[in-house]
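Example record

Each entry pairs one chain with its bound ligand, zinc ion.
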Amino acid sequence: MQKGGTSMKLIIAAAIVIFSVIKYFSSSEVNEITGEKQYISLTKEDEIAMGINSAPQMAQEFGGLSRNAQYQELVKRVGAKVVNNSDAHKTNYPFQFYVLADNRTVNAFALPGGPIFITEALLTRLQNEDQLAGVLGHEVGHVIARHSAEQMSKQELSQGISGAAGVAAGDANSAYYAQVVANMVNMKYGRDDELESDDLGVRFMIQAGYNPEALIGVMDILEEASGGSQVPEFQSTHPSPSNRREKIKAAIEKYRNQ
Ligand SMILES: [Zn+2]
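Structure tokens for the complex follow.
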């Protein structure tokens, strides 16, 4: 009886794993801008709705929107210039650019489907419009490469697998380790996502007529703001600024020669 129970659990566990993997790999499509094959269970419409619905709460986390009308206008204008004059406009994401009131957290981020935010703390540290275009171009890159949707689809996969591991072993420990593994998978992809967004940021900057070298200056500002360690958007999952500088230089060479 005991034995039968165990093999039944294993069969259920195997079924869960197989179901998760099939669901994941059957959701493959090619990204029109990056040319990458991606596994995403969310539709673009899901992403856009998710971004719009969570934008107010995200703003709330950072002290609401900045009341400085000049800041808001500047970020909207530069964001629109980056999107409208680059491949970014070929996507139908409704990009929106906002300044957050937070003047302590040096940060910028993108929600799936288009809402992009920069804190006053980061905006006021930037030295020129090109650097702002670099920050916004990088965030536009996260949206277009569909990084959060990709992460969510992976989460679904890893949750299926970690749930299965817990069922098979019948204790919390293996579920815990499965979660650790899942996090490591996500962390690895997180680094690649940052480098890909830097690359796309450079591409959109060049297309929109901005100086892509300015993105290297942004790395200096981020490093300085963090006192040599890493800053929020650029937390533990992020590659080191020196690594990013090298890749940014390589991207500039690549897109300038196209
Ligand atoms: Zn990023």
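Residues 138, 142, 194, 197, 233 surround zinc ion (CB under 6 Å).
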